Amino acid sequence: MAAESPEILTYRPATLPDGVAPEPSARGALYGLCSRLFTDPDDELYELLADGTVTAECRELLEQTTLSVEPPDLTVSEEHETLSARFNDLFVIGYSEVVDKTDGTMNNQGPPVSLYESDYRAERSWNDVNVDLARAYEFFGCEVDSEVRRNHDHLRLELEFMSYLCRREAAVDPGVSAARIDFHDRHLRGFAAGLADAVGAESGTGLFGRAADFLARFSTADVEELAAREIENPATREGGSNHPGEGGVGR
Predict the structure, then answer these.
(1) What is the pLDDT of residues 158-172, one digit of tens each?
(2) Where is the segment annotated Disordered (predicted)?
């Protein structure tokens, strides 16, 4: 899965092809927007954040869904350099310090907030998390862009994958909603909650704190509605619609 294009504001119900359901398409666009937010903003994204376009777009997308989620304020007032520095301080820059000068023992710490799911999954190894994700991506014909060089459990990749599943549900496979429940249960929902807690423990998080809070609320509402829908009208899981890994990441 390649990184999302900077041109994120492309969803409009009127522009969808015939036969494509607008509601899951809007959810997919929201996951794609969330993916774009968790990056060091380039010039184009910064301008869209600063002039309120992203805030308005997020609100419009939420209105196209059946979810009751309060829209976030994603508008920024700080300078571009300040916003970039905040992203790096939260998600990129760690530190090292000498704890024993006699033998040179170092204490190496990563950034305050990790963007990798495995750091929030004490009960599962890094390998288990990433292998399970790799199988899920492969099962749906997706792969990580080799030029991006991120582990499979990076937040943006998981959000892009969920965006893809939503769009697949909208266009060709309504039954893929069962797969989305599985992916939430096995990966994204707990990741989003852990990320929101980690960002919430930091001060001065600004846009990224609001984005993490929104992702947690949005993903919670998404999976709860999917689960209720599944109870009322169980989606078929026959014909190889489940990922063959342990417990299955659905298709």
Answers:
(1) 999 999 999 999 988
(2) 229-251
DSSP readout, 66-120? S---PPP-----S-HHHHHHHHHHHHT--EEEEEETTTTEEEEE--SS--BGGGG
**Distance (Å, rounded) from C-alpha 103 to C-alpha 112?**
27
Q: What is the pTM (predicted TM-score) of this model?
A: 0.83
* Domain annotation for the chain: domains and CATH numbers: 22-232 (1.10.3480.10)
C-beta separation of 76 from 207 below 8 A: yes
**Bridge partners (DSSP) listed for residue 97:** 107
Residues 17/23/26/28 CA torsion (nearest 10 deg):
-90
Q: Decide: residue 54, CB within 10 A, 0-12 exposed, 13-18 middle, 19+ buried.
A: buried
Q: Would you say 13 and 183 are in contact if contact means Cβ atoms under 8 Å apart?
A: no
- Cβ neighbours of 52 (radius 10 Å): 13
Gap between the terminal Cα atoms of the chain:
16
List of residues 6+ apart from 230 with CB closer than 8 A: 177, 178, 181
- Amino acid present at 77: S
